[in-house]
Structures are given as structure tokens and as C-alpha cells.
Specification:
This protein is mainly beta and about 110 residues long. The protein is about 0% helix and about 55% strand.
């Protein structure tokens, strides 16, 4: 069962669990995740972050349903949990992730 499809926008590329940006890019790259069905809770880990990353969760109409979650820069080997709970409304259908650096996403978990 396919849970999600991934699109890299703004010159980004997605390869082997990493968001890659072209050398010399000075603007944020956008990574968009389309979930195959709506979910109530989405949780995942971001590792190898050494520049700010922002994450927002959207409904099927692409309306932002969460506040923008900011993962601050820090040690490139640390993990940071990103979690959004829609309180039983099952509206989570898309995630938008913006980054300027290589980012690895691990341990995706979904709950209805």
C-alpha cells in the first residue's frame, strides 16, 4: 500500500530519503508530501539538520491546518521529532517542508 508521494519543488531533488538542494541556492527549497489518504496524527523524525527547516500540515484543499513548525539549526547528527495531532478530525493530507540543506526523514508514523 502506497502511503504517500513526494514532490520536490523550487529546484530541489529527493533521493534515498534525503532532500538535496543545488549548490549555490540561497532560497528555501520546498518538499511536498501528498498522503494517499487523510490521517489524524503524523509523526516523523528529521536528522542531519544544520540549517532551519519548517514544516506545515495541510488539508485536502491545501489549507494550512497546523502552525508552522520550525526545526532550528544545531548539531548535524541530532534527531528532532515533528508531530502533528489533528484531534480526531482526520484532515492531514499534505505536508510542506522547506529547507536550505540536506535533510533526512526517518520513522514516519501515521494514525487514524
Amino acid at each position: 500500500m502506497q502511503l504517500a508521494t513526494y514532490r520536490a519543488l523550487s529546484g530541489s531533488a529527493f533521493r534515498s530519503g534525503q532532500l538535496i538542494h543545488p549548490t549555490g541556492t540561497s532560497h528555501n527549497n520546498v518538499f511536498f508530501v501528498d498522503l494517499a489518504e487523510p490521517w489524524d496524527v503524523v509523526r516523523f523524525m528529521i536528522t542531519s539538520v544544520n540549517r532551519n527547516v519548517t514544516v506545515s500540515f495541510k488539508d485536502s484543499n491545501l489549507t494550512v491546518i497546523s502552525g508552522v513548525i520550525t526545526v532550528p539549526g544545531g548539531d548535524v547528527t541530532r534527531q528532532h521529532e515533528v508531530r502533528y495531532d489533528d484531534k480526531g478530525r482526520r484532515r492531514i493530507r499534505h505536508m510542506e517542508i522547506r529547507a536550505n540543506d540536506v535533510v533526512r526523514f526517518d520513522t514516519f508514523k501515521f494514525r487514524r
